[in-house]
Amino acid sequence: EEEEEEEQEDDEEEEEEEEEETVLSPTILRSRHKENAAALVIQRLFRGFHVRSELHKERASSINVSSIRENSRSSSDDGRSWEGEGGEEERAAIDIQRMFRGHAERRKLERRMGRAEEEVCMGEDEARLVLKAAAKRRLQRSKMAAARRRREQERAAVAIQRRARGNAVREAQRREESKRELELRAALRLQATQRGHWGRAYADRLRETGKGKGLVMRRYRLQEVKRERRKGRAGETEGVAKSFGSYSLARCLLTDRDVFIRFSSPTAVTKEAALLQLLRSPHIVPQLDVQHEGEQSIIVFPPPELQLTDLLRSKRRMDTKSAAGVLLDVARALQHVHGRRVAVCDLSAASVVRAEGRWKLLGMSWAHKDGEMFAGGVTPSSISPWTPDSSCVTPEDLAACAAGEELGLKASTAMDLWCLGALLYRLLAWKPLFSSREEAQLKLSPQSLRGRELEVEVEEIHDVMGKYILENLLCLLPADRMLARDVALYAAQIGSQELYAEMNGGEEEEEEEEE
After folding, report:
1. Where is there biased composition of kind Basic and acidic residues (predicted)?
2. What is the pTM of this model?
3. Can you give the residue range of the structural domain that contains 253?
4. CA quadruple 457, 462, 464, 465: dihedral positive or negative?
């Protein structure tokens, strides 16, 4: 019966394993068969060992039974002898002992058999547990392998998606680039066509209007504007060329835009163009074109938004903050020019214009290198006609002219600093520093400056920082004048009266306490 039960259990386990094997892969089935074969071999060996142990026990029990029989025979012989001697009691005791020994031997055998059966059952249970653990491990390994394959498949799918997206993005980029290239080619073709039309129209215009004129006049036409509310004798409006000092407003026929032009000699125009290239900065108006024709040349600038002379001619006075802004921009321009060791030499309100939201310097017609002598003894103060807003007078220039040493006068950055002080005085006092050249010569003569602390009176200036800057710019000695970078540093403080009022109030309180 036990063997039949074991065979049934083995059949059930084999059926369970076959059911599991139907789900698992071929490789797992092979390992499963190997493990089952190993388990069957272990069971066979264990059963053979159990059978051998039972045979040894039976032999031992037969040996014990034979010894008991021999003992019983010997005791029967003794009993016979004892019977013969009349020892019935001893014979009864011997029988009792034999019976007890037989029971004890049988109990020992039963115990041994029970232990052997228990050991056999425990071995089978352990084998079942081992097989179950192996099945669990196989299931876990199969699950892990399936999860690993699933992760690999997901990674491969993600990589394929990324590649597909990258290909799509690159294809879209290629399409956009090709579209841009086509648009650019079309735009260039349209521009070339438009330029061709402009060129033909410009050529037709030159043929019509440029008969008997030079190249310059064929390209640039001076603007003729109508004077406001001014009529001639016959009641007709007079047409005049609009002029801004030495600059004239003209119309470029090539670009159809307004420009500023100035006529000069070819040497002066070439020198100014080279200096403008050297001093290229956002604080200086750049040149647009240079044209030479015979002994006359022109230099072309973009038209400014506003000229400082227009503001100075108006009746409305400029406030202190606006004057500080003009001074700051001009000081920065001078700082850039002086950093290249170049002097402007004709800084005045006429050379300051507003363009692109800031005040800039227009033109470098009188610019010289620092220490360079003026050619032919022509100094900035000898410009004719002399005007307060367009001419600049410096103590060095007047002293050289008074001594007859115009040929030895050298350009210096200190002249620009004196002109900057004169411009600041014009903005703050709203009147020129000198109304004429004779007044300038009279006030800056050694006889008038004898015994005075300041070269120029600045009592009309009420701003404390403005007065401080003027006192350090309008100095007779060039070495005593403030540098352009210091003016740019202090210019932003002009007009801040509250700070100086607090400082002056504190000083007055200290003086009262001391008194």
Report:
1. 70-90
2. 0.54
3. 215-225+240-301
4. negative
